[in-house]
Amino acid sequence: MFYTCGPNEAMVVSGFCRSPPLMIAGGRVFIIPCVQQIQRISLNTLTLNVKSDKVYTRHGVPISVTGIAQMKIQGQNKQMLAAACQMFMGKSEAEIAQIALETLEGHQRAIIAHLTVEVRTHAMQEKISAQYKNEIDMAKAQRDYELKKAAYDIEVNTKRAESEMAYQLQVAKTKQCIESEKMQVQVVERAQQIMLQEQEITRKEKELEAKVKKPAEAERYRLEKLAEAERLKLIMEAEAEAESIRVKGEAEAFAVEAKGRAEAEQMVKKAEAFKEYKEGAMVDMLLEKLPLMAEEISRPLCEAKKVTMVSSGGGDVGVAKLSGEVLDIMTQLPEALEKMTGVNISQVTHSGTRHKIHHKNPGLIKSFLK
């Protein structure tokens, strides 16, 4: 730690590595705290009023003398400064002045006691010479003080300016370091946030994989297996159905073929019957189908919900009229059939053709009628 003092005081540093103590008049010194000690002593000029009342001379003449003395410790004189430190260190200016005053009063009384008239005259001359010399020394000391004070002020102001600039520079450096540390802290915080976000993303991905992807994959696998089983089932069902259709088709084809062969045989037999019996077979077939024809002719009447009949009074009325209409239509069929086929049913019936047919080849006619 640095300590400074003006040109009107001196510092004495003692303690570690300071043997003998270091004496500095008007300057600065670096002190190590706790192991070194600093003390100060004033170098100001002290003006003393030395009074001696009724002091008897050698010839018994009482004299009262008042003297003015100025005392100053010369800081440049190391021996005087060391002696002053030994005698006055730790004392205030008032205490130093009191000690010097008492010492000067004692010397003044001793001098007055040995004075004669000649000595007194010589003493007055010496006093005046000493006064002049003291004034000259005081002027020199004042001049040295002013010069040192000016140099000290310049040095103090320079050091103060340097200290202020150094302080401002240190403040700027400190702010820069603080900002740098803040930025570093922000970078570290941002890195930690990024790391936490990455960990959170990883956790969410694992959670998603555990809760969604794995079940989804299991479900997909299950659905794939079900789809594969369904596909195999459909394939097997399709193959079975195809086989069934093939067998059924073969059966139906065989049935159709058999039916076709039977129908063909029947048609052959019918043709043979037609060829052999001609009009008799045709008449027999028509007689077989007459009830169906009558049913078809009367179907419109059966499906009618309401029938309104108008009569002029010259014929049947009611159900007899309707049945008569059906019978009239049926009696017109032989005539129409004769026009279409050239076969007269009445003549064939009367001539006994049907009896001859049944008598000659009844199996053929039965097959024909089927």
TrEMBL record:
InterPro entries: Band_7 (IPR001107), Band_7/SPFH_dom_sf (IPR036013), Flotillin_fam (IPR027705). PANTHER family: FLOTILLIN-1-RELATED (PTHR13806:SF46), FLOTILLIN-RELATED (PTHR13806). GO terms for biological process: positive regulation of cell junction assembly; positive regulation of cell-cell adhesion mediated by cadherin; positive regulation of endocytosis; protein kinase C signaling; protein localization to plasma membrane; regulation of receptor internalization. It comes from Neolamprologus brichardi. Heterooligomeric complex. Pfam families: Band_7. It comes from the Eukaryota. Residues 1-195 form the Band domain. SUPFAM superfamilies: Band 7/SPFH domain (SSF117892). One of its GO terms (cellular component) is flotillin complex. Belongs to the band 7/mec-2 family. Flotillin subfamily. GO terms for molecular function: protease binding. It is found in: Membrane; Endosome. The keyword Calcium does not apply. This is Flotillin. Keywords: Endosome, Membrane.
